[in-house]
Each structure stands twice: as C-alpha cells, then as structure tokens.
Amino acid sequence: MAKPASDTPRLRTVLLYSRGHLGSAIVFNLLHKRELDIVGVVRASPLLSAKTGYINFNPIKKTGIRLGVMLAWQRSIELLTYGLAVLFSFFRKDGFLPGWLLAHRLKIPILTCKDINAPEVLDFLREKQPDILVSAYFHQIIRPPILKIPRLGVLNIHPGWLPDYRGVMNYFWVLRNEEQSGGVSIHWIDEGIDTGGLLARVRFTITPQMTQHQVLMKTAILGSRLLQQIARRLARNEAIPVITVSEEDARYYSLPGPQAFDEYFRRRRFFRIRNVLRIIFHGISRKKNRTPYATGKDNR
C-alpha cells in the first residue's frame, strides 16, 4: 500500500477500539498509514462491565438466550478468523490483521482498559497529544474530561443513518425494520448519544440475502472511507459544515429483545461463515476512496 505524500498533512489520532469486534478491526486496517497518524489505541472489551471488569450479563438478560447464543457463535467464528489472519500474515504483507497484531507491527502503543473514563486513560491520552480521537464501534460512554483532550474533538463512525437510527446495533435494526437501504454516518461526539454535529453520511442498498453481519462490515468499510475524506479536510484546516437534520426523524434503538430477534430470524440469517472468511482470503480493498461525500438525505 502506497504511503501518503510527504507534504500531505496527517492528524495525530488515538483509536478507540472494541476488543474482538470485527468492525473495529476493519476500521483499523483501513485507516492506518492514510490521512491519520495513529499514535495510540485505547482498547476495551464490549463483553465486560466497565464497573466490575467481569462479564456483563445484562445485555443477554435483555436480548434473551437465543440472541446471546448467536452472538457467542458469531464471536467464536470471528476469533477463528483472527487466528487464520495471523497465520496468513506470514505469507501476505497486505492482508487483514487483528488489531493487536497490527498495532504490534506498526509499533503503536495499546492501552487496554475497563473504563474509558479512568484516570490512566486520561494520562495516556494527554501523553499522546492527539488532534482527534476516532471511535470505531466503541461501546462505552465517553465523558467530558476525555472529550476535551483532543485538539479538534472526537469523531464517531456510526453504523446507521443519522438521526433516523441512533443507538446500538443499527445493522440489526435496519434489517428488522425491512429497510431498502442502510447507512453509515460520521459525527462529532458530544455528551448526548449520537447527537453531535453530523459531518457526513452515505446510504447503501440492502439486498434480500444480506445479514446483519454483512451490514456491519459494509458500514465499517464505507465509514472508514468517509472518515478518510473528513480527516483530509480537517488536516488542511478546511471548514466542514455540519449537516442540518430534523429531530422529527430521530429514532433511538436499544438492544433488541427476544420478539424483535424472532421477527428478524424468520426472514434472514444472522451471519454466514463464508462472509467472515472472505476477509481473510480476499482482504479489504484499500483502493483510493471513491465514496461520495454525503451531505443530503437522498444520497444513495
């Protein structure tokens, strides 16, 4: 992969990363050595409680055992994928890598934490003096002390079309709601939930055979490309106008319950093993970004 030109400005960036999350890994693989100079990674597990550090069973209580089993099965396949990625990395220099190995090879320091708002995270971020933080499918609430550290702010790759799809697991809900298109949005993080200034968004077509896992991967790839465009403009000190949206369109989605999952499962698969393995055998395209810079609701 070609390196950026020497005169191309790059933003000092700390990546907020969900351990074991395929979306986070895709974003890391696509963003490094591009418009962003990733100087650190803060990694937390979405499965663990930020308060106790132990497995958080509250999501499983809400979603039901069936979805919990499906998520566990999906995660086990992803772990197998990461293992194959490590094996293939000895033969392919430009292949997909799990985040920890990618950081190790690039000599990027990783801080593993239980709580993003803990004092040790504040110290780590202050030491890195980032221009921006990038939240890549990070599952913890970021408090004001963290938000104030980066020079420009905290950007989030949100796997849904804002403000219609705020909240969590939008890649599930967009299929559960039988939408014809999905979306991904880039916005500044503020003290609300997915309410910060919206900088870009793009839609993509949902096909009849698509799974929530494929939608997730699609949002990670398109979201990374949108973020590259935004980072390039920010590095050149260009003003990026905030997209005006109507709060009348705003909807918030929480974790799905058993009924929502049953309705989804009657129509679609949850994920396919071959879609996960395809990343290993075919990689992720790192070609020059051709994703349109999305500013209007009808952009598809």
Explain what you see.
The chain has one domain: Rossmann fold, CATH 3.40.50. It has ten helices and nine strands. Helix 7 packs across helix 8. The strands form two sheets. The protein has a seven-stranded mixed β-sheet with strand order 3-2-1-4-5-7-8, sandwiched between helices. Residues 1-5 and 286-300 have low confidence and may be disordered. Strand 4, helix 6 and strand 5 form a beta-alpha-beta unit. The protein has 300 residues and is of the alpha/beta class. Helix content is 37%, strand content 17%.
Task: Give the topology.
Blueprint: E1 11-18, H1 22-31, E2 36-44, H2 58-63, H3 65-88, H4 99-106, E3 110-112, H5 119-128, E4 132-136, H6 144-147, E5 153-158, E6 166-167, H7 170-176, E7 181-188, E8 198-205, H8 212-235, E9 252-253, H9 258-265, H10 273-282
Parallel strand pairs: 1-2, 1-4, 2-3, 4-5, 6-9
Antiparallel strand pairs: 5-7, 7-8
